[in-house]
Amino acid sequence: MKKLINSPETVLDDALSGMAAAHPGLRVDTEARVITRASGTRPGKVAVVSGGGSGHEPLHGGFVGAGMLAAACPGEVFTSPVPDQIVAAARAADAGAGVLFVVKNYTGDVLNFQVAAELAEDDGIRVETVLVDDDVAVRDSTHTAGRRGTGATLFVEKIAGALAEQGADLAAVAKAARAVNGASRSFAVALTSCTTPAAGRPGFELPDDEIEVGVGIHGEPGRRREKMRPAREIVATALDAVLEDQPLAAGDETLVLVNGLGGTPLIELYVVYKEVADALAERGVRIARRLVGNYVTSLDMAGVSLTLCRTDTDMLALWDAPVDTPALHWG
Amino acid sequence: MKKLINSPETVLDDALSGMAAAHPGLRVDTEARVITRASGTRPGKVAVVSGGGSGHEPLHGGFVGAGMLAAACPGEVFTSPVPDQIVAAARAADAGAGVLFVVKNYTGDVLNFQVAAELAEDDGIRVETVLVDDDVAVRDSTHTAGRRGTGATLFVEKIAGALAEQGADLAAVAKAARAVNGASRSFAVALTSCTTPAAGRPGFELPDDEIEVGVGIHGEPGRRREKMRPAREIVATALDAVLEDQPLAAGDETLVLVNGLGGTPLIELYVVYKEVADALAERGVRIARRLVGNYVTSLDMAGVSLTLCRTDTDMLALWDAPVDTPALHWG
């Protein structure tokens, strides 16, 4: 294993220290492993809080900042944060209007956030939870009962974060977050495996001429192995899977995320985006907004995920609202 | 070879079509292979123009936009743009105040930009050129006489672009660009090779337990091969090389770029940044601003480059000036 780390045991603490040093706009509690805005949540605003295993950077810590997350709590690589840590994040982020937990649907995360929600409520913090389960590839998987959560997490965090910033109450922010998740579908394809620092070897084996179709963000198995194919055909497979689950008609508007899994060069992601744009144009579906880049990664895995979110005017206005985080910045 | 492309022959055209579709703020001439701002260069402003081989994305196309480049002209992967293409970029970008070519010091780029400068001047466009040659690893290399150009390109393009936006004349913008290059030094370490679509196999072989110390952005050989080591030691090697060439004293201020070469996860780049920050703090050198991410890449190469630029108040003000491009956005 060749990784730019000091040791598998210190990778998360070292990376958090690096984030603290790199981003003056963040406050990183390296002991509690909680990342908040240096300026804190504005009084009276709902705090959108997320977390999960590390190894998916910039998710979630890179999305902390005005207009998006109030706090993030990263667990060890591919491992859920523990309940105490999640409660610490809720405490640090709550500004009196309650906390929305954004939880990707993996069994460990779901359980730990549930325990944390109860503990936080014992502390007098109001908590709502939204489960993100956008991955249409498989029904159940290694780490999950039901669908896995993936790229839609970014959409949920951005849109819920914008609504919280505008002063909406907890119920409204939770409702919007659930609507975004409900409108989103994802599908991923891996060209290579990925290697966690602790394991030191690839999580699965993939022959030199094969791809994993429907892979999960921890390298969980997808639907099948296939021979490598041109980008256009891979995009067609991913898009068919997404649209089979949630049809989009001519005239519908969608957010698109073409997301690199960590080891794929940006030039290839633009090739993929061209194919997505062409295929949606053929169907008369309008891409209202899009992101192309590495946002929800799986360490060094080569591959791509595609996420579509059927959108409307209100959702778009929240998408366009200003955001100021390490990984997303506009407005 | 597994890459998300349709064919090695179409990768650049497909990627440019993808960029065109993804970024409404850019105008992409896919025939001439020139990327400009959709709004054009403001009349009377100097146009900062850059280009070079593709495969280093987001460099240069991702840096086109207000406050940075007026145009970029990407060649085939790891191949210089041709003179006609560079002239087309100059023509498209010139707004009457002349054009600054930012050229990384590789033989093909230097020659083609020189021919293009003469052709553009025949057309009545005033041209100045700044050569970027910040890589201290080796004196000459496979593609270069003299030092190679690498991470400092981002600093030059940002700071020259900001000065151009403020209305400085061509001589002043060129002078500032040369000053940034003169104050910058870089050093890179590769953990893996990279694979161009045309070659279809890694450009060099690197054993599972070795790193290439001082690698170039096309995989050119560095100073030596070494056994893999902890991040702290790799950073010490890179930082020593940079500071040996340009010493920084306690109290000096520097810009820092911790740049992923394409295949390295962001979590590792933060580990590297922590080590850089610690080592500079020990020496009393102040990090005025910093970037951590994938900006000047080498396709799927795993590894990192470190760039330092000794800075002053004027340079910092230009660094902080607003920028609105696909890859850099603030202010």
UniProtKB/TrEMBL annotation, chains A, B:
Which reaction is the catalytic activity of this chain? dihydroxyacetone + phosphoenolpyruvate = dihydroxyacetone phosphate + pyruvate
Output one GO BP term.
Answer: glycerol catabolic process
Q: Name one GO molecular function term.
A: glycerone kinase activity
Pathway field: Polyol metabolism; glycerol degradation
Q: Which UniProt keywords apply?
A: Glycerol metabolism, Kinase, Transferase
Assigned EC number: 2.7.1.121
> Record keywords: Manganese included?
no
Which SUPFAM superfamilies is this protein grouped with? DAK1/DegV-like
Listed under GO cellular component are: cytosol
Q: Where is the DhaK domain?
A: 18-327
Q: What Gene3D superfamilies does this protein map onto?
A: Dihydroxyacetone kinase, domain 1 (3.40.50.10440), Dihydroxyacetone kinase, domain 2 (3.30.1180.20)
Q: Does the keyword ATP-binding apply?
A: no
**Domain of life of the organism in this record?**
Bacteria
Q: Which PANTHER family match?
A: TRIOKINASE/FMN CYCLASE (PTHR28629), TRIOKINASE_FMN CYCLASE (PTHR28629:SF4)
Subunit (UniProt): Homodimer. The dihydroxyacetone kinase complex is composed of a homodimer of DhaM, a homodimer of DhaK and the subunit DhaL.
Q: What is this protein called?
A: phosphoenolpyruvate--glycerone phosphotransferase
Species this protein is from: Streptomyces armeniacus
Taxonomic lineage of the native organism: Bacteria, Bacillati, Actinomycetota, Actinomycetes, Kitasatosporales
Annotated gene: dhaK
